[in-house]
């Protein structure tokens, strides 16, 4: 996707908005208008990895349902940095019927960590390239970097 992709343009005001791969747009927490704009621009699935208890500016599941969006919430917290959580995220990303996907957390930090194994295992990226792209997406936490890299290394073919 190019920088003029309609979905990326729709979420361009969101912190760390990025289009790392065709059919995948990432970022931080959208507001109601950005959420609606993402749907209007073609988003099919919203993958939200914020904990349901984190404060949000609106009710994402309800708005997604009203807009006909597939909404998937997989909580990523300091206590859920495990293989099971990553496998749930990867299942959504690997589902061709889910794209285009708008994948978000609060800032892009958790999204970046979760995408490292997808970039390496599914897209064939070298580790340095996957980490650089994850950082462009918003990855800042060493724990999230380690989570993604360790999973990728354990599951390398």
Q: Rg from C-alpha positions?
A: 14 Å
* Structural class label: alpha/beta
Q: How would you characterize the largest beta sheet?
A: 5 strands, mixed
Question: Can you say what the CATH homologous superfamily is?
Answer: Protein tyrosine phosphatase superfamily
How many DSSP E strands? 5
The third-level CATH topology is Protein-Tyrosine Phosphatase, Chain A
**How would you sum up the global shape?**
globular
Which blocks of ≥5 consecutive residues have pLDDT under 50? none
How many structural units, i.e. domains?
Answer: 1
Kindly provide the name of the CATH class.
Alpha Beta
Percent helix:
40-55%
Tell me what you see in this structure.
This protein has 157 residues and is of the alpha/beta class. The chain has seven helices and five strands, in the order H-E-E-H-E-H-E-H-E-H-H-H. Strands 1-2-5-3-4 form a five-stranded mixed β-sheet, with helices on both faces. The radius of gyration is 14 Å and the shape is globular.
Describe the structure concisely for a colleague:
The chain has 157 residues and is of the alpha/beta class.
Task: Summarize the topology.
Layout: H1 6-10, E1 18-21, E2 24-27, H2 32-40, E3 45-48, H3 60-67, E4 70-73, H4 83-94, E5 101-104, H5 109-122, H6 127-137, H7 142-154
Parallel strand pairs: 2-5, 3-4, 3-5
Antiparallel strand pairs: 1-2
Helix pairs in contact: 2-3, 4-5, 5-6, 5-7
